[in-house]
Amino acid sequence: MTPPPLRHRIITASLLTVAALYFLVPVYWLVVSATKNSADLFGTFGFWFADPHPVDRLTEVLAYDHGIYVRWLANSLLYAGTGAVCATLLSAAAGYALAKFPFPGRDAVFTVVLAGVLVPGTALALPLYFLFSAMGLADTYGAVLIPSAVSPFGVYLCRIYAAAAVPDSLLEAARIDGAGEARIFGGLALRLMTPALVTVFLFQFVHIWNNYFLPLVMLSDSGLYPVQLGLTSWTGYADRQPVLYQYTVGGAFLSVVPLMVLMTVLQRYWRTGLTDGSLKA
Amino acid sequence: MPSGPEQAGRKRARGAGGSRPRRARRTRTRDARAAAGFVLPFLALFCLCFLAPLGYALHQSLHRTERTGPLGLGREHETFAGLANYAHALADDRFLAGFGRVLLFGAVQIPLMIVLATALALLLESASARGVAFFRTAFFLPYGVPGVIASILWGFLYVPGISPLVKIADSLGWHLDFLSRGTVLWSLANIVTWQFTGYNMLVLIAQLKSVPGELYEAARIDGASAWQVARHIKIPLIRPALQLTGVFSIIGTLQLFAEPMVLRPLASSVDSGYTPNLHAYSEAFVGNNPQVAAAEAVLLALVACALSFGFLRLAGGHAGERR
Predict the structure, then answer these.
(1) Which UniProt keywords apply (chain A) (predicted)?
(2) Do B2 and A209 lie within an 8 Å CB cutoff?
(3) Which site among A268, B97, B251, B305 is 20 to 30 Å from A2 CA-CA?
(4) Is residue B22 very low, low, confident or very high in pLDDT (cuts 50, 70, 90)?
(5) Which residues on A lie below 8 Å from B53 (Cβ)?
(6) Which residues of A touch B130 (CB under 8 A)?
(7) What pLDDT score does B20 carry?
(8) How far apart are the C-alpha atoms of A76 and A82, rounded to whole Å?
(9) CA A146 to CA B8: how far, in whole Å?
């Protein structure tokens, strides 16, 4: 193929650079601001450093209020990690069965799951709160964990993937060899479905990590808060205690960096997983 | 969307019943039992977290709490209210205004974001792009920033006195006000666009990658320009991915909550009824009116379903015929 003319390459490069600036400038602001103390945060130019002491600033965030921030971070990890693992396993099993077993009511189940994909999560959060508080489950870890383990989109993706990636002949062969259904699923199907499972796990992890409405509605004990909820509770008090603005910025930085590193590393894998989903959709 | 595997499954099911009925029947019961074991754990939780709350909300939305006794301080009891809560919600100008606002928001922000995501995907996938890996990562990065944090971040970039953007504009003689009554909706749209363009771009790139390269080669040899290839080959081929991103954007827009919630203290025009979700939330927890909030949640779910089904119909019709 002949290389495109220079003019094209220059236009492409400049458009991509402008876009990159748009997406990166707020992140850059966050990095710069996380190194400032309260006075400098408000008193100095936002896009440049002023007397940076990143380690001191971030230690202050971690130490404030007996280390409540660390607890919030641990809660977030618990909600997102446990929730995503459970959601992935449940979706894998359900998607596999929907793809590979012609059982009565299968189409009905799949339609209900699809409708579940289309019902907005936050429209459900309030009713879920009413239900859970009637059951005495509100304001517990379970109030956030249980709904996080359900992913209709995960079932949808696993079904599509299993239909294409798990050959019937292999299942038949395993059955003739005398393997039980659970062993076939655990030993064969799960392995063949790995790319889809990684995608579901990542989606669900990010979804739970980013979810704000559900914990906001469900939790009132600040010891159970995930990190986002904790940070907004700080901004709520910042009028009376302006140093909390600084801690919010530092806390936001601390919570965002690990996820960004994770996404950068996993991006390649994520992309292949997405291809499998949308290609066959 | 799922018509492919669906049909394949049905064909197989019929095929399995073929020549030896007794064995087939045994297979079928075994299948059903195994399938139940795999599906039930998910279904049980799905019922608890999707169907039961919807049912409960539906029930609640049709009832009202009444107090008996002097001054209404006596015992509470629930009575059937018919559609009164719905009538109450639909007669509330602020709730309706919130809906209108969110629809306007979506009508502007979703097309803008999808056009931007498509343009970036096509640019990155064009042969003349250098540093693809860097740019892709840079565009995708904001997806890793939760809505709340993105809003806190942009909040600082919007507030006069702190915002370096306002400062720069001031020194150039422009007066920027991101949080005025007229602009704050678009400042919110900017936060959402910033967060999700890169994600949508990645979905589109994934679909572009699935297009065989020979197709472009052939078009090039036939003398098609880069623009013609994009317009007549790439865009039609990524249509399913465009539909997917469209539906998820519609659902996301209707749920708009965290962004206005975080900007509320900064912008006086963002009130407690700014979006339907915000309105339902304050109805439940500030107004102490869970039944009306339930009615509003049901209405929100209905509108979201109707819009996304409608969109899929509208956008999916031709693709389905072609297949």
Answers:
(1) Cell membrane, Membrane, Transmembrane, Transmembrane helix, Transport
(2) no
(3) A268
(4) low
(5) 124, 127-128, 130-131
(6) 9, 13
(7) 55
(8) 10
(9) 34
Task: Please name which of B266, B146, B161 lies closest in space to residue A46, comparing C-alpha atoms.
Answer: B161
Q: How far apart are CA A256 and CA B2, in angstroms?
A: 35
B120 contacts chain A (CB < 8 A): yes
- Judged by CB atoms closer than 8 Å, whether chains meet at A130 and B60 is answered as yes
Positive or negative, the CA dihedral B16, B17, B21, B24 is positive
Contact status of B163 with chain A (Cβ, < 8 Å): yes
Question: How many CB contacts within 8 angstroms connect chain A with chain B?
Answer: 310
Split at pLDDT 50, 70, 90, the class of A2 is low
Q: Which residues of B touch A159 (CB under 8 A)?
A: 2, 5
**B123 and A94: CB-CB below 8 Å?**
no
CA-based nearest distance A220→chain B, Å: 12
Question: Comparing C-alpha atoms, which of A248, A35, A42, A38 is closest to residue B161?
Answer: A42
Mean pLDDT (chain B) is: 85
Return the pLDDT at B317.
53
| Euclidean distance between CA atoms A202 and A85, whole angstroms | 10
- Asked if B142's CB is within 8 angstroms of A128's CB, the reply is no
State chain A's mean pLDDT as an integer: 88
* Coil, helix or strand at residue B231: helix
Task: Give me the residues paired with residue B64 across strands.
Answer: B79
| B2 pLDDT higher than 50 | no
Out of A8, A150, A181, closest to residue B50 by CB: A150
For residues A227, A232, A234 and A239, what is the CA-based torsion angle, rounded to 10 degrees? 170
Structure tokens, A109: 């189940």
Nearest CA to A231 out of B147, B123, B274, B69 is that of: B147
Contacts of B19 (CB under 8 A, 6+ apart): none
Instruction: Spell out the domain ranges in chain A.
Output: 34-269
CB contact under 8 A, A13 and B129: yes
SS (H, E, C) chain A: CCCCCHHHHHHHHHHHHHHHHHHHHHHHHHHHHCCCCHHHHHHCCCCCCCCCCHHHHHHHHHHHHHHHHHHHHHHHHHHHHHHHHHHHHHHHHHHHHHHHCCCCCHHHHHHHHHHHHHCCHHHHHHHHHHHHHHCCCCCCHHHHHHHHCCCHHHHHHHHHHHHHHCCHHHHHHHHHCCCCHHHHHHHHHHHHCHHHHHHHHHHHHHHHHHCCHHHHHHCCCHHHCCHHHHHHHHHHHCCCCCHHHHHHHHHHHHHHHHHHHHHHHHHHHHHHHHHHHHHHC
CA separation for the pair A234, A225 (Å, rounded): 12
The shortest C-alpha distance from B224 to chain A (Å) reads: 13
Contact (CB, 8 A) for A61 and A35: no
- The whole-number pLDDT of residue A272 equals 55
Contact A97, B39 (CB under 8 A): yes
Task: Report yes or no: A148 at the B interface, CB cutoff 8 Å.
Answer: no
Per DSSP, B234 falls in state I
